[in-house]
């Protein structure tokens, strides 16, 4: 299994060898192969079939370099991409390739959103990617729900805290559709039907609002939501599009609506009613104040003039009006009528509006009876007809209403008794769905209502894709080459990239009409998700690389200037005239395709290749099992449709790995990677607060190298080749979306879409479209820059809106690491060996250098006007070095770039800095948001959390390949939860692990379903839908619910996978029957917390709303010819 | 070989249905005179009656499994019509295999329509449990050598190769004396002695005795991520073991075994122990023993299948489990005691646990579960500042003090509290003076890359270099062959 040597695909090697003899220039030799369709097809169609030949490293590097220079020259550097996940686990390995690709001008693809591990609800509610308690904080909880998170299976090292918390007196509740491993140590097991979890949470919300807010007026809860959430803020009521006489909820009221005088950033200052002064005020801490100079930005209960405030949770109503809420179920979309208290206001423009508060809207939505004669409220918990009651949720989830009432009461009462120590551990089980943000928001609503967020032992605890890279400033400086070219790195959201590049958009059968609210109709409406992505690209919400339909290096030549202002004018004009297009509008065009892809630390094509067969067919041109046909009945409006089938878009796939799994088997060049026992690196996680080193126990075996050394060697080859074939410096025009935590997050006010393409507003870079910048690239210098910490690092670093100077630290690094003494990088600290890079990362970061932490808190104090420096004061002298953490791993120093005020032995717990220290959340209101008022959220009925059913069942589409079903074929829900004997594909090839469970691919189903199809335990099955086919053996177990099948995640296709009788080809991995569906609400940008940041926000590559047909595999054919 | 495995219960385990002593004839039974005899027949029987060449009760290959490996090298091979795959190949025959069984085949209730009913405990209990979704439950049973007080493997060995050490009770195989008769495998009702086909010797868990001698815990205990394993010393009266094991009623055997243990704080016990040559460190360790605390004082830990009359010495705390559907949804706000499931409301039937751990003694299991549940309620009251009627602790033989210390032992579970192991007295076994500065490896005939590791040994014999073997077998710290 171990990859010991460099390999190149045999067929490609033959072509390359011949071309090199023919052409003196390797760049021309490469062109002669890839631009000849016949030659290209020869090696691309051989991908995955074996036949790799061993080569010398220099030969492999020469080939890669020729591809790089040819692609950059011909198509532009943004046709090169890199994929590697989860930098926290081995920071330097991630940084190595990212730095190399960033120096070239290629794009790094994000993984957290692509994996669907990113919970979009987190940026939506908190403006925060994900911040969670370390597992030791479970012990501080007194009520823990494990919701879609199988703790002993996927958090094995941490699971003992759960057992211990239980002995400590915590009640444990497991929510899982199957009798999962974690259910064993729960007190209650709730088994909702898969994907209905939001309804369960909403049944709880109903009970909490009714008993703890309406009946008991619990002051502890009320005080919390007044200060730390948007519940007291005012929302306009607008006419309902379902019933003209009714209302629907609209947008936040801003100070500009009601103030006579101009207010700075007034459109970004939402208002509430202050009971103290008896007037509408803007409280401290909104996003408007965040970007207002000289204005302290905090959550003190004061208004902008310093007056003490006491917000009214409920509106001082003039009248109760009838309001329509959208509802969604398997029958279709409905309208729910309720009453809501409202007040009539006259805005400055003379218009009259009813307004209410977010709190009143929620009480109304949940049907809480506030007036005895309210005929539209729920009549009780047993009111089945009234949405969101416990009885209603039972009809959706199948969980007993009485149990939901019990759990809701305990949940809230515990929070009351313990000051918020109620926790929900949540994860992939509920996050990998199309509507997972609705589920998460519904659950988090309960935690916010009970004052649990920002409390040690309480709040959400989301654990999927352990993403907490603690020494962040130093790492990101190096990984994205900001030390040489600040802001020069391209950072592409992975989901959109793969959606377009693997052509899944052309097969997308999801008609968005069915997903929308009947209550609010908006102007910018599309039926196809891809159209929303185009909208997001051109308005600067999401990035889009490959960038334009021409090379990003071509603009200075074309416009004969290197003046960015001039270039911007031309670009705007060309865009408006339709002469210049974003590449994503026509992803099938040759010049718009990604050409080169680097993969390292990842098994992309199977383990994380949602829609594996689309990858195989369109990106790779390899043998595949795709059964779907393109959906030309419903084409996007804003894209060019190409009837031709484009296969094998990628010219060269380079993979670095140490194990022969599917991705290297389907790559063209394999470089042998060092394992984590053969190199130095850094590791951190959200599960504990320590920063760990990796040290080489042995030298890298055979010809393997650490990733840093691998990319360093490549940088040298490519720089040398550039001296001969591409010596002139180039100017790279780079687009950049409107970024979160920059002033661009207040670029597009009021949550209203203004589309320049439709002439609704001017096309202004950085405002109504992506910003533009010009980056100078010199391909002869890539190596010199790669190995040295560039002079820009002697300046400011930061994160989350904070910045601080690290010039001193940069100068210290010169002493610590030594400097180069000649050439371009003269005087720069050396990054030529792995340990140096680790030391540079540690020295420049606030979590690992007490001096930097002090400066970071100082900056935070300046911005917030709150006392904060004491948080890290006790750690001031701590300076971690690679050696010091090798002696003993150290706890990260608390820093404002994360949200825990942990110090003095506290456990890491998120948002404590917001709650205890009154630092605002980075959202529109500066508070945790129950309500999102952007136009697209209104269109989709998701302003408030809502129950939305899973996507409609579909196995084969009407135009797909016709499959004759077997007589007793089953249709089952198909889910791919994380497995017990592997970590993704890691160890799935390992004899011990495979011996521990059944030795090859398997799927789990219930005896009830198995009986229906005559399936016995260990039978071979064929599992298919339009996306592909996988063969696997049956595991029949009564711990599985009827109607669902599990194929545990990342069972790769190179172990024991027979041929499919349907396709005649090798069955795929667990991802063969998957595809992604992208959700338009997650593309919104330029609007407060709904603004892009890399790996932080964007549509998720969800793959769970899927069904398969299951039949017995008639003939087990291995065909090993 | 799987010295130390974890099985899902209900399930058949490894080797399959090892608890079916009617079939495997492991452990002891009482003869017509009420005296202990090995179920499979005693030593004399074997030698005298010439049955030594005939041992029909041993598990067969299929009861374990046919070991396999994969043809990984195919993946680096020549170009093929379809993507190459590594297929399973038998480690015995080298032929491709259609996998039908393995050592953990019924993991997590896998294949339950078939395996659930085959769990031998199912036949012994009265509760009517069906393998359906609504009634689903499962638990994990870690299994290793029980280092029994009345070890049937020792009694079974015709060669006298198996022995129980005086100083620490560890049961070992003398590799020099073992002649490979394998009656120990039959004698052990837990099936925790294995046969090494390379050396033709019996092998078993050594309880990491070299570590124990140094006062360090076994590797499995130290590395247990669940922190569930504890080790401590116990003083017992060896002279009374036989009588205890001859207790007629199966459901009294657990209590009979408890009676053997001596109170390490009792002055008379201490005096006698010292007189018998037990060193002071051992006595102090017994006084601080977490096992004594849990098994004898609090009675929350139990031996596995005491009805085998082996007096096993690995102790298990029975698991709490979720409430059954039927009892869900009551008002725990008005009555906070209802927040946790009642003992009789839990999914794992008490009689199932009793079948595993007490030879059918239901009361003992219930009392343990009550105690654990009461401790949780007490701690919950402490942590949430609620009133608690401490008299309720009395009902389960706890006080505020003992409830807190028991909680501490189970939940805080410091390393020093989990492992109380006295170092051995070296002067009793060697000349400490002359051993000073000795290397300790002089006699070692292969302190290199695990030469006993079967397949590697084979490869080495076939002329492969160590480097090559390493190459094929190692990445990322995980052994494979």
TrEMBL record, chain A:
Residues 2-716 form the Molybdopterin oxidoreductase domain. CDD domains: MopB_CT_Nitrate-R-NarG-like (cd02776). SUPFAM superfamilies: ADC-like (SSF50692), Formate dehydrogenase/DMSO reductase, domains 1-3 (SSF53706). Its cofactor is [4Fe-4S] cluster; Mo-bis(molybdopterin guanine dinucleotide). GO terms for molecular function: 4 iron, 4 sulfur cluster binding; metal ion binding; molybdopterin cofactor binding; nitrate reductase activity. One of its GO terms (cellular component) is membrane. One of its GO terms (biological process) is nitrate assimilation. InterPro entries: Asp_de-COase-like_dom_sf, MopB_CT_Nitrate-R-NarG-like, MoPterin_dinucl-bd_dom, Mopterin_OxRdtase, Mopterin_OxRdtase_prok_CS, NarG, Prok_molybdopt-oxidoreductase. This is Nitrate reductase, alpha subunit. It holds the Pfam family Molydop_binding. The keyword Transport applies. Residues 972-1084 form the Molybdopterin dinucleotide-binding domain. Keywords: 4Fe-4S, Electron transport, Iron, Iron-sulfur, Metal-binding, Molybdenum, Nitrate assimilation, Oxidoreductase, Transport.
TrEMBL record, chain B:
It is found in: Cell envelope. The keyword 4Fe-4S applies. The keyword Electron transport applies. Its cofactor is [4Fe-4S] cluster; [3Fe-4S] cluster. It comes from Secundilactobacillus kimchicus JCM 15530. This is Nitrate reductase, beta chain. One of its GO terms (molecular function) is nitrate reductase activity. GO terms for biological process: anaerobic respiration; nitrate metabolic process. PANTHER family: NITRATE REDUCTASE BETA SUBUNIT, RESPIRATORY NITRATE REDUCTASE 1 BETA CHAIN. Keywords: 4Fe-4S, Electron transport, Iron, Iron-sulfur, Metal-binding, Repeat, Transport. The lineage of its organism: Bacteria, Bacillati, Bacillota, Bacilli, Lactobacillales. GO terms for cellular component: cell envelope; membrane; nitrate reductase complex. Residues 136-167, 169-198 form the 4Fe-4S ferredoxin-type domain.
